[in-house]
Design brief:
By secondary structure, the protein is α/β, with parallel strands linked by helices. The protein contains six helices and five strands, in the order βαβαβαβαβαα. It has one domain: HUPs (Rossmann fold, 3-Layer(aba) Sandwich).
Length: about 180
């Protein structure tokens, strides 16, 4: 990125942002974060992830945009939830970036080894072309564990499933997931 470029990061949660934040700060690259995650189930989880991210962004002096987006009611009806979810979040990010004069966008989804990396890249490149804004690709997966350790050391809430109702229902940690006190 060049000096006058601006970056918007679609952020799913603070634990996925914490290493990426370190990466950009050590390279003196500033960015803004966008919390747009209509897939998170249930609403208490959606709010808990947002408030954790909000606290981290305040602490790190990162501008946070929040597009209220909870819409779980239609999520189970999607035939391929991951594709639907990726496209919805990435397209909204690219469009928001263009409308708000960012030169580049990316997503914290790129840090997770559990996400479908090639699909994310394909969709992001399509949205970059559609909205005439550059997609910044960096493979952060090798730093996933370091980021999770940083989040744990920081005392961050770390969720046990991707976010949608289907990932919640199929989580091997489902019996440990509780929504009280959130």
């Amino acid at each position: 990125m060049k000096k006058n470029d601006s970056l918007l990061i679609q952020t799913c949660c603070a634990p996925c942002l914490i290493y990426i934040n370190k990466y950009f700060k050590t390279r003196d690259i500033s960015y803004d974060s966008l919390y747009y995650n209509p897939n998170i189930h249930p609403y208490k989880e959606y709010v808990h992830r947002f408030t954790t991210l909000e606290s981290f962004c305040k602490e790190e002096n990162v501008k946070l945009h929040h597009l209220e987006s909870f819409r779980q009611s239609d999520w189970e009806k999607q035939l391929d939830n991951c594709d639907f979810c990726y496209k919805l979040r990435i397209e909204t990010t690219a469009k928001f970036a263009k409308e708000n004069n960012y030169t580049h966008f990316t997503t914290t989804l790129l840090i997770s080894p559990y996400q479908q990396h090639e699909k994310i890249i394909k969709i992001a490149n399509e949205m970059a072309d559609k909205y005439n804004v550059k997609f910044l690709y960096i493979d952060f997966r090798p730093f996933y564990r370091e980021g999770q350790n940083m989040a744990r050391d920081h005392g961050m809430y770390r969720q046990k499933y991707c976010g949608c109702i289907n990932s919640y229902n199929s989580s091997k940690f489902k019996d440990k997931i509780t929504f009280e006190n959130k």
